[in-house]
Amino acid sequence: MLLEQFLKTRAWSEALVEPLETEDFVVQPVVDVSPPKWHLAHTTWFFENFVLKPYVANYIEYDPKFGFLFNSYYNHVGKRSQRDERGFLSRPTVKIIMQYRQHVSEAIALFWEDLDKHKHKAEIMRRIEIGINHEQQHQELLLTDIKYILGHQYLMPPYVSKDAPDTGWLAEKELEWNAVPEGLYTIGHEGGGFAFDNEKEPHQVFVNSFEMTDRAITNAEYLEFIEAGGYKDFRYWLSEGWDWVQKQGAEAPMYWRFIEGRWKYYTLGGLQEIEGGSPLMHVNYYEADAFARWKGARLPTEQEWEIAFQFNPDWMYSPVWEWCASAYLPYPGFKVEEGALGEYNGKFMSGQMVLRGGSLATPDGHWRPSYRNFFHPHLQWQFSGIRLVR
């Protein structure tokens, strides 16, 4: 039932921030990281602006100023605060934001009681479903941003004291290669179930035969690249990637620290010894591509990735998003929806690379083979890793 899914999703967002101290909610160390308080408010603003305000007669907005503060990038909706100023907001307080969430959640639940009578029922349900999936995306960003906020502090405090979600994912076997024959295949979302507009318009693609690894690369495997001088040898790097290495002084993935002659890394459970058998996390596209070249392999295209998982869906479930050698572009037949919701995906199809799969931070039910994630190639803070093709 959609209402049950809505309420469950809203509750999970609040559970994710429960371990935080109040001071953690407002921090924005870099422009790509949003404060946890902003995520909680923005996902609430989404339901208020796209469901309640257009369709509920006499709906009383919680605070008209929130439209400016918590709009992310929807030009159709109006003016908004700058992304790099989200960390300035000591007010409204966390307490007020939680009250705002309750106000909107209760309004949706009350509206649901009479939804069968509404002439726009189908569209309203569609928007609620989009809002649920939108909040699930922000739940993943919440955990990603929380790790950045805590992991870039001097004290590197743990998010949780035990059972950290980014630890304990040990590979169970040696790396194996699996063959996929050449042929004409259909990719893109088909059939029932939710999908974003950028996944739709299923279409056929031809691929040559290839082999793909049956799991993601581990920390131990990537450590071999580091110890072989991978960050010091320009031959493995794209030109922009080598520029990034030089400017950043990069020597290892994000959160890795060389302390007293040993590599350690920050996890959501705090600083610890690197688990060699765990999947590598927090590398950018340039690092993934350089490692693949060093291994005499390459990254999969997103078409190859999706086709490979048609052969074996079990390969899809990985604790990390996997970089693909594909620019984020529209599928054939893609059309941008009219209005504000048309701004969700289409206008970002420039300068970004695709990641496929999901991660340890991806909520249950949010996985599907056609799902397309996308980020700029220099970004490391996502739970992103490597799968190889040859």
Description:
The chain has 390 residues and is α+β, with helices and mostly antiparallel strands. It has 2 domains: 150 residues; 209 residues, paralog of FGE (formylglycine-generating enzyme), CATH 3.90.1580.10. 33% of the residues lie in helices and 13% in strands. It contains 9 helices and 11 strands. The strands form 4 sheets. Strands 10-9-8-11 form a 4-stranded mixed beta sheet. A 3-stranded antiparallel beta sheet has the order 5-6-7, with no helix packed on it. A two-stranded antiparallel ribbon has the order 1-4. A hairpin with a 2-residue loop joins strand 5 and strand 6. Helix 1 runs parallel beside helix 5. The model has no long low-confidence stretch (mean pLDDT 95).
Classification by helices and strands: alpha+beta
Rounded to an integer in angstroms, the radius of gyration calculated over CA atoms is 22 Å
Query: What is the CATH class name of the largest domain?
Result: Alpha Beta
Rough outline? globular
Work out the helicity level. 25-40%
Strand and helix map with partners:
Layout: H1 2-16, H2 36-55, H3 66-70, H4 94-113, H5 121-151, E1 177-180, E2 183-187, E3 203-207, E4 210-213, H6 219-227, H7 239-248, E5 256-259, E6 262-267, E7 270-273, H8 285-294, H9 302-311, E8 321-327, E9 353-356, E10 372-375, E11 384-385
Parallel strand pairs: 8-11
Antiparallel strand pairs: 1-4, 2-3, 5-6, 6-7, 8-9, 9-10
Helix pairs in contact: 1-5, 2-4, 2-5, 7-8
